[in-house]
Amino acid sequence: MTTLTVLLALTGVLLLGSSRLSISIRLVAIQGFLLGMTALWGESGFHAAGLSSGLSGMLVKGIVLPWLLLFVLKQSGARREIEPFIGFGASMLIGLLLMGLSAWIAWRMQLVEQGLSPALFTVALDLMLVGLFLIITRRKAITQTLGYLIMENGVYALGVGAGTEFSFLLEIGVLLDVFVGVFLMGIMIFRIDREFEHIDTDRFIELRDTASGKLPVEAGEGVR
Amino acid sequence: MTPSTMWIGPLCGLLFAPLLPGVINRVKAFFAGRRGQPILQAYHDLFKLVRKGVVYSETSGGVFRFAPYLTLSAVILALFLMPMSGMRAPLSFQGDFLLMVYLLGIARFAMVLAALDTGSSFEGMGASREVQFSALAEPCLLVGLLFLSAHSGRVGLSDILGRITAGSWQDMPAMLALLGSAWFILLLAENARIPVDDPNTHLELTMIHEVMILDTSGPDFGAMLYAAALKLWIFGALLLNLILPLGPPSPWVQIPFFVIGMLSIAVTVGVVESIMARLRLLMVPKLLIGATALVTTALIMKMAVR
Question: Which residue in A has a C-alpha nearest to residue B175's C-alpha?
Answer without folding.
Answer: A6
